[in-house]
Design a protein that fits this description.
This protein is of the alpha/beta class. It folds into two domains: 188 residues, 3-Layer(aba) Sandwich (Rossmann fold), CATH 3.40.50.2000; 168 residues, 3-Layer(aba) Sandwich (Rossmann fold), CATH 3.40.50.2000. Helices cover 42% and strands 15% of the residues. It has 14 helices and 13 strands. The protein has a seven-stranded mixed beta sheet with strand order 7-10-9-8-11-12-13, with helices on one face. It has a six-stranded parallel beta sheet with strand order 3-2-1-4-5-6, sandwiched between helices. Helix 1 packs across helix 14, helix 3 runs parallel beside helix 4 and helix 4 packs parallel to helix 5. It is globular and about 65 Å long.
């Protein structure tokens, strides 16, 4: 019997983290893929990932408009509530056998709540990891709602067991984002960068450049403008040394407007001739972008996950990834311009690092598809350490 697997993609990052599974599920004889695209994946100013999703051959079964504009803690809470209401209707119409949700976005929590309350088995990727910000709480809350777990690392698997999850429901698969890196042509061209337009000075991939991606930290709401300005000062010092900068726009989390304001003010005031701002890349093209960078700077998990597999030097700023597993390619820095500059210089001097398979070997998507096609489904849960 073919199982209907419903995947909810809420952001550009979500899509990159699950694309290889979508391909595997679409091709799997035991699965019928259902796709819902919503939240910031529909919004132009956050990269409009739905266009890339469709260009890749995935036509959504439905879309969910759930983002309340404002990028404050209040609008995050309201967006989560609205998404629960909308997703419940779509799940009722699609009648999936299993819902798969990705990682730790606030929109992801809505998927988990709607699915579990509707007695639909819930599968979850990237549970058991440790970070800072509200993502930490959201990730563990989803774990307690989920019935099938796909952690990316052995440590994450162990943490899930210590949280009381049934070891039989935990399947160590690695991270599907790594699959794209393992199979892609990672070369980059000027024409590829031109395709994504953006604003600022042209970026020549034949010359040294670094990539910056800094998101707001929701538990440090109100600090985003100050924090991004510290990073901008450090990056400007690199620009004066002749290093080009590709800067990606922040995500939709509370405080995004503060970070975006800092970027706009800097751009208008300084007109940097070494910096180009982008809204979004396809997952494969983002891999090409960071693979050829001399350094990846900011607080995105991609510096720790994809960066580890590629061996790209990473400067991780602030608390957003606090506690997450990392390979030797990562140097941490606080929100301080001098410390960030020193960390970047250290990484530039070091150069490439050995590749790490910490987050997977490139076959996670197929593994997840095989498990979901065959695993017994149940909506009953109990703490595993309680007596039988």
């Amino acid at each position: 019997m073919t199982r209907k697997i419903c995947v909810v993609v809420n952001s550009r990052a979500n899509y990159g983290r699950i694309k290889s599974f979508l391909r595997a599920a679409k091709a799997h004889s035991g699965l019928r893929l259902q796709l819902i695209v919503g939240a910031s994946a529909l919004l132009y100013r956050f990269g409009e990932a739905i266009k890339i999703i469709r260009a890749d051959g995935f036509e959504p079964d439905s879309v969910v408009h759930s983002i309340v504009e404002g990028e404050t803690p209040t609008t995050m809470a309201k967006s989560t509530g609205l998404a629960i209401v909308e997703l419940a209707t779509h799940f009722e119409n699609l009648k999936p056998d299993v819902v798969l949700t990705v990682a730790d976005r606030f929109e992801t929590l809505a998927t988990a709540v709607a699915s579990s309350y509707m007695n639909i088995p819930l599968a979850h990727t990237q549970g058991g990891e440790v970070t800072g910000s509200i993502d930490e709480s959201v990730r563990h809350a989803i774990t307690k709602l989920a019935h099938i777990h796909f952690p990316a690392t052995e440590r994450a698997r162990e943490y899930l067991i210590r949280m009381g999850e049934d070891p039989g429901a935990i399947h160590l698969t690695g991270c599907p984002a790594i699959d794209l890196l393992a199979e892609a042509d990672l070369s980059i061209t000027y024409e590829l960068l031109e395709r994504y337009k953006g604003v600022g000075a042209p970026l020549d991939p034949a010359k040294p450049y670094m990539v910056v991606l800094q998101h707001p930290v929701t538990t440090e709401y109100g600090e985003g403008f100050k924090q991004v300005n510290e990073t901008l000062q450090a990056v400007a010092a690199m620009g004066k040394r002749g290093l080009q900068v590709a800067w990606l726009w922040p995500n939709v989390d509370a405080g995004s407007d503060d970070v975006a304001k800092g970027l706009r003010v800097f751009r208008e005031r300084h007109r940097p001739d070494y910096m180009h701002f982008y809204r979004n890349f396809s997952p494969e093209d983002y891999a090409r972008l960071i693979n050829n960078a001399h350094c990846l700077v900011g607080n995105s998990s991609s510096g720790l996950r994809e960066g580890a597999f590629l061996g790209v030097p990473c400067v991780n700023i602030g608390s957003r990834q606090r506690g997450r597993e990392r390979a030797s390619n990562v140097v941490d820095a606080p929100h301080d311009a001098r410390a960030i500059e020193a960390a970047i210089l250290r990484q530039l001097d070091h150069g490439r690092y050995p590749r790490s398979l910490m987050f997977g070997d490139g076959s996670a998507g197929a593994r997840i598809a095989d498990v979901l096609a065959e695993v017994p489904l149940s909506i009953e849960k109990r703490l595993n350490y309680l007596p039988a």
